[in-house]
Design goal:
Elements lengths: L25 H6 L14 H8 L5 H12 L3 E4 L7 H6 L4 E5 L2 H14 L1 H4 L2 E5 L11 E6 L12 H10 L1 E14 L1 H6 L2 E8 L6 E11 L4 E11 L4 E11 L3 H10 L2 E12 L2 E10 L2
Parallel strand pairs: 1-2, 1-4, 2-3, 4-5
Antiparallel strand pairs: 5-11, 6-7, 7-8, 8-9, 10-11
Length: about 290
């Protein structure tokens, strides 16, 4: 478990009463490595889903700036419930949102409908697994935001990148971000645990213990969420998991070159002394 300063303390390994949990702030837990995304598998997981993704809202400005430089249409891969898609449509861009989770796409459409038919008319939703991506048109900007590249199996990633490159306009761009881990740091601390309270406004108190386990042999990570929800008359506990892949920077750069893409811009933000977030902006190679 990590305190707000990032100092390791004795972890809690399952749902426990709030009085016994050492907490970190929800915002801190949300951007720590491995907690970037959680596909909602049931209606009662939506609050947790939004809490984990909420702190990423700041990247909308950066991606919008890029979209204004490239123009549209925009392809939002792993769109979820429209965190980027709907704001892009509100700013006048035509957007295709692709996600493997049908309920998330339903939420996206409902959000756009509430805003109005003009916004909804700029959005197309496609229910598909990114590992088997098949595109039908060309785009000026493709996004793999929120570390979605880590959700694509390494064996499928070269093909996905080739598919993206084949459908980019000549002056188009692919923008993706991911968490870069130090191998020595993973080997030293392969198990990491955090506890936090989910912000809710419906009368339910929700606490989560999230345990992240790295496996360097398979270059994978699993995050298990132990959830406790206290309602007026009962307490409910549940467990859900999300599986991701550790992105090797060297492999990713080689795969981008193999797909005919060149890295035009690279930005880094350190999350702790051994982990940093990387944003890559790529253009078709000349």
């Amino acid at each position: 478990m990590y305190t707000q300063t990032g100092t390791p303390v004795t972890p809690a390994l399952g749902p426990v009463p709030p009085s016994r949990i050492t907490t970190a702030s929800p915002a801190l837990c949300a951007w720590l490595p491995g907690l970037e995304s959680l596909a909602p598998h049931a209606e009662d997981q939506l609050w947790l889903h939004d809490a984990l993704l909420g702190p990423f809202s700041g990247d909308i400005v950066e991606y919008l700036t890029l979209a204004r430089a490239t123009g549209g249409p925009v392809l939002d891969l792993g769109s979820g419930a429209g965190r980027l898609t709907v704001p892009f449509a509100r700013h006048g861009f035509t957007v295709e949102a692709v996600d493997r989770d049908a309920p998330s796409l339903e939420r996206l459409r409902a959000w756009a409908d509430r805003i109005g038919p003009q916004i909804r008319g700029r959005i197309t939703t496609t229910h598909a697994d990114l590992a088997r991506l098949r595109l039908r048109r060309r785009y000026q900007l493709t996004l793999l935001a929120g570390a979605m590249v880590a959700a694509i199996p390494p064996y499928a990633r070269p093909g996905v990148l080739r598919e993206i490159a084949a459908h980019l306009g000549g002056d188009g761009a692919l923008a993706l971000d991911y968490t870069a881990h130090d191998a020595a740091g993973i080997a030293e601390h392969p198990h990491r645990t955090w506890a936090f309270q989910v912000p809710r406004f419906d009368g339910v108190t929700e606490w989560v213990v999230a345990r992240q386990v790295f496996d360097l042999a398979t270059m994978s990570e699993r995050i298990t969420y132990f959830i406790e929800r206290s309602e007026k008359t009962r307490v409910r506990r549940s467990i859900t998991t999300t599986d991701k892949w550790i992105v090797n920077q060297g492999d990713l750069l080689r795969e981008l070159r193999g797909a005919g893409l060149r890295v035009a811009d690279q930005r880094q933000q350190w999350l702790d002394e051994r982990t940093h977030s990387v944003l890559l902006v790529c253009h078709p190679a000349e």
